[in-house]
Amino acid sequence: MPEHTTPAPPTKAVSNGIAPPELDLPYPDRPEIITSNLLKLTELASDQRKRLIFKNLVTHLHQFISETGITTEEWMNTIQFLTRVGKTCTPIRQEFILLSDVLGASALVDALNHPAVGGTTESSVLGPFFTDDAPDLNAGDSIASEGSGEYLFVEGYVRSTSGNPIADALIETWETDSHGFYDTQKAIRDIPDCRGRLRTDKDGKYSYRAVVPVSYPIPADGPVGDLLQLMGRHNMRPNHLHLVIEAAGYHKLTTALYPEGDQFLASDAVFGVKKSLIVKFRDVNDEAEARRRGFPKGGSFKLLEFDIVLASKEEWSATQAQLQKQ
Question: Which partner for 62 in 35, 57, 172, 215 could form a disulfide, CB atoms 3.0-4.6 Å apart?
Fold first, then answer.
């Protein structure tokens, strides 16, 4: 095996190799010439879609700067803020996703790209707390360690738009504990907790034990928390369960379920709540039933029954094609 060596640093600055463009680019002696020249340069992008994106980005960014009269100090503060956002990111904390969420960008992109198709379950934002190390579980297993909160049992069916069961669908689910913390926010995270991965049975049924989620503040100890303070906005999310569902031949669904009655439903800090995703918990005060469902301490528990409807890839492609024509 050849020995690994670190490449020597360059001895001089290196061009990217692109020649000066053959364009009429007046010297930027006035503000409007800066915008005009940059719009001409966006035409050099390699394909039509990229040209459209760069053109609109430049147009609206420059329009915002001009109309708002952004000062040099304000712009430098913005750059420093974004630098802080980047430095706050870690393998288990994504501050840029959080920034996108609180500005409504994540929800807007999701709404535009994932409309409901023929009675399918609506989508919601992924959020910044997804991890790829959730343990694999069997039906009825618990995603939460004992003592994480009030008992909750979640069950339902995954079906197609025609009502047929979808067997072997993969469901990833995660939530906070009763203190409003995801496992990634804890000082010590020995193993994943309050998250799991399971599959539907031959009838499309899924079931798992969890805990009743609680409303919680998104992290306030970073630049996004500072931004919300400046805007005079609260940093609370209503209680919810995250779910991502995948099945062969079907479009992947990212969604969340929001129990009714939470005071933050309408003003969710990340704009994730949709009316169809508001659900009702049922109180079950039956010791024997609690034991039968696997709750170690028995007693009472809450029950959430929710059926998930997925769009086939063909249905999804047809909807996307229709949207592009509009």
Answer: 35
